Structures are given as structure tokens and as C-alpha cells.
Amino acid sequence: MKKPELLVTPTSVSDIEPLAAAGADAFMIGEQKYGLRLAGEFSLEAVCEAITLAHKHNKKVYVAMNALFHNDKISELDHYIAALDEAGADAIVFGDPAVLMAAREVAPQMKLHWNTETTATNWYTCNYWGRKGAKRAVLARELSMETIVEMKENAEVEIEVQVHGMTCMFQSKRSLLGNYFEYRGKAMGIENRKEQRNMFLHDEERHNKYPIFEDENGTHIMSPNDMCIIDELGEMMEAGVDSFKIDGVMKSSQYILEITKLYRKAIDLCADDEDQYDDQKDGFLEEAKRLQPENRPLDTGFFFKETVY
After folding, report:
1. Burial class of 12 by CB neighbour count within 10 A (0 to 12, 13 to 18, 19+)
2. What is the tens place of the pLDDT at every residue in 119-176?
3. d(Cα 262, Cα 240) in Å, to the nearest integer?
4. Are the CB atoms for 35 and 93 separated by under 8 Å?
5. Which CA distances in Å does 15 have to 18, 42, 58, 268, 284?
6. Which residues make beta-bridge pairs with 186?
7. Which of 14, 239, 281 has the alpha carbon at shortest distance from 139?
8. Which residue of 38, 52, 154, 195 shows the fewest CB atoms closer than 10 Å?
9. Listed residue (227, 238, 241, 240) closest to 296, CA to CA
């Protein structure tokens, strides 16, 4: 059985070598100015250093440029993409067509991964962007296992699926924390706004706490649970999904390291002996639960949600 790439999001350059040793095959990095919801901030200098370290261990580095770009930033794209090309980045992750157009001009050989977060929901659209130059499509997180398998069967591009970590439920380009939900008596309230860290949006009706933060790209409200599919990898691996992503946003370096080791074991075992993986997969899930922060329960995301028409 084909082993999918294990894609991990490090928090800093110092994470690269430990994660490479732990079994990561590729890293997604970038800076807030150009990328969305990254586990760590990587300046252009840090990106170049990370690429050098990763390539030393035969690992790949993908650079996030998946933000939405207003006109004031368009002029910066050529210089940034050219610098990434010179540094040897293995691919650029994009959503805004402005990045595609700039890459065609200054780095026509650069591999591109199409990621609009929510609109990669069918194989036809993935193939459309493949014809425009994308080598990979990053699937939306709201898809069922059945849909993912169907898309892989019909896709003409590589397919990447998130298998672990929190997901974004809502993003606005506006600074909503400064404008909304801070009035007494509202249904939801913001906790720890002044610190800009470990903030939560409380929903008393659903008894959920949603991590929320602001950055240069606006306001981001994240899922109340982390997805974890470590005990259900077999079907996607049989279908030939190309890349499994562990999203480490708002997680510690140590957590990302340990969860990478765990998924490495699970993927290798599933590829080498699926029956033995089936026998041990409950143990993998229990170990993943043990690693979780107390306020971040695990669930299976949308993988097994029924579609209602």
C-alpha cells in the first residue's frame, strides 16, 4: 500500500530537525503577511534556513501564500515568490489567483498547491485548477470519507487531506474582536482579549468554547474540538490519498513532535500490515487522547457526517 506524505506545521526553525527525525516528510511554513493560520511565524530569512535544514534531511518545504491579497499587497508578490524560488522551496500553497499569476511570471517551474480552505469540495474543481497549473489540491475539511475517496479516484492532481488538529470555522478580514461581542448581556463573551492569547468564544447554548484570535488577516474562530482520524487511515490510504496533514496551529512544539511520531507509526504499520494496524488502531487513538490538552477533546470532524439534501 502506498504511503502518503506526512505533512506537518512546525512552530519555528528549531522544530525542523526534530520533526524530520520523528518521521515528517514535509513542512508547511510561512509568515502571517502571506499565509493563513500558521503554527509559527517564519520570516523570509527563517524560511530560507528551514528549507536548507529540511533538504539536508531529504524533506520538502511548502510555503503558505494562501491569504487573500488586496491591491496594496499585489506588488510584493513577485519579489517574495522569486526569493522562495531562489531558496529552493518545493511548492507554494495558494488560494488567491494573484499568486498563480505572479508565479507564472517570476517562477514558472514552481509547484503550486491550490488551497482555498472551503471550496475544494469536488474533483472537477480540483482538476480545473490543475489545468491552470496546480499540482495538488488541498481538500476542504467539511468532506466525508466517502467524498474524499471519490475525489481521489477522479482527481488528476495530488490530493491533501487534514487528518489531525483544529480547523477554522469562520474568518473575517475585519477585526471583529474590537467591534463585536464585547457588550454586556450578549449571548457570547470574549475571554482574555487583552492578552491576545488563549482566547475563547463561549457559546452557552451549545456548551462549547471556540478558540478565537486576531492577526493581520482578520479574525479567526476555530473549532471547539480537534479532529483525529488516526484510527481510520486505511480507506484513504487504499484510495491513494497523497498527503496527510497534521495542523499544529495553537499547539506547542512538543505536542506537534509527539503527535507526528504517533502518526508516523500508524501510517507505516497500515502500509506494511493493515490487519495489524486494525488490531492496534484503538491503541493509537488512546495515545492521541493522552497527548491532548484538557480543553481540546478529539472527534472525527466531518469524516463520518451524513450529507443531508
Report:
1. middle
2. 999 999 999 999 999 999 999 999 999 999 999 999 999 999 999 999 998 888 777 6
3. 20
4. yes
5. 6, 12, 15, 22, 23
6. none
7. 239
8. 195
9. 227
Report the alpha-carbon distance of residue 108 to residue 184 in Å, rounded: 54
Farthest-apart Cα atoms in the chain, separation: 57
State which amino acid sits at residue 25: D
Q: Which amino acid is at 258?
A: E
Selection from 83, 76, 7, 101 nearest residue 47 by Cα = 83
One-letter amino acid identity for 254?
Answer: Q
- What's the grid cell of residue 264? 508516523
Q: How far apart are CA 214 and CA 258, in angstroms?
A: 28
The model's pTM is: 0.91
Burial string for 199-213 (b: 16+ CB within 10 Å, else e) reads bbbbeeeeeeebbbb
Task: Please say whether the beta carbons of 253 and 10 come within 8 A.
Answer: yes
Angle ∠(52,55,120) on CA atoms, nearest 5: 105
d(CA 252, CA 272): 30
